[in-house]
């Protein structure tokens, strides 16, 4: 039997087709064994001649020999088919693994493109009770992303002030580097007892 699909990649339906063929062969082998069973329980190795060397009269010798021959051929086909099923499954799993690894690498690359890990500002004060304090922002946090502002488009603190004003009452995604680790903080600029919308 030819390799499923020839040059194209192995698909799940190719494997299912091989498994169906395997089931068919197993059913044929079973039928041949049942035929032998019907011939006075003659198996694969019992003699087909009597004590004097003549063909046994109590069984259909031709039918037994044909069934035995078919079983041997079918078992060989079955063995070859099982090898094909195994190879097809290996290819299928290898392709899935490869695809998963590729997707993961692309996701990492995309994340690196989207969020340059270059800090552009440092938190030097956080007022107690302020929105910044409530969000978990800490002194010495290095800001990598502040809403849409990052190292690529940051020019001065006015950029951050603009984002804060436009985001009053709405959560902002802020990414900082704290102790060498990236930390995401959800910060909602709003009016409070102190100065500004952040503190």
From TrEMBL:
Residues 90-180 form the PDZ domain. GO terms for biological process: proteasome regulatory particle assembly. GO terms for cellular component: cytoplasm; nucleus. Gene3D superfamilies: 2.30.42.10, 6.10.140.1710. Keywords: Chaperone. InterPro entries: Nas2_N, PDZ, PDZ_6, PDZ_sf, PSMD9. The keyword Transmembrane does not apply. PANTHER family: 26S PROTEASOME NON-ATPASE REGULATORY SUBUNIT 9. Acts as a chaperone during the assembly of the 26S proteasome, specifically of the base subcomplex of the PA700/19S regulatory complex (RC). During the base subcomplex assembly is part of an intermediate PSMD9:PSMC6:PSMC3 module, also known as modulator trimer complex; PSMD9 is released during the further base assembly process. Interacts with PSMC3. Part of a transient complex (modulator) containing PSMD9, PSMC6 and PSMC3 formed during the assembly of the 26S proteasome. Belongs to the proteasome subunit p27 family. This is 26S proteasome non-ATPase regulatory subunit 9. It comes from Erithacus rubecula (European robin). The lineage of its organism: Eukaryota, Metazoa, Chordata, Craniata, Vertebrata. The gene is Psmd9.
């Amino acid at each position: 039997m030819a390799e499923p699909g020839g040059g194209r990649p192995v698909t799940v339906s190719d494997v299912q087709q091989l498994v169906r063929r395997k089931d068919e062969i197993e059913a044929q082998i079973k039928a041949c064994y049942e035929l032998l069973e019907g011939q006075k329980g003659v198996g694969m190795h019992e003699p087909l001649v009597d004590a004097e060397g003549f063909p046994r009269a109590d069984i259909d010798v031709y039918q037994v020999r044909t069934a035995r021959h078919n079983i041997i051929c079918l078992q060989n086909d079955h063995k070859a088919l099982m090898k094909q099923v195994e190879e097809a499954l290996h290819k299928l799993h290898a392709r899935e693994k490869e695809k998963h690894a590729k997707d993961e690498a692309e996701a990492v690359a995309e994340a690196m493109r989207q969020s340059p890990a270059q800090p552009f500002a440092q938190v030097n004060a956080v007022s107690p009770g302020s929105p910044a304090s409530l969000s978990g922002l800490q002194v010495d946090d290095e800001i990598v992303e502040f809403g849409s502002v990052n190292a690529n488009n940051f020019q001065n603190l006015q950029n951050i002030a603009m984002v804060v004003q436009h985001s009053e009452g709405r959560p902002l995604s802020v990414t900082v580097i704290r102790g060498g680790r990236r930390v995401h903080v959800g910060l909602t600029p709003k009016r409070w007892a102190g100065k500004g919308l952040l503190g």
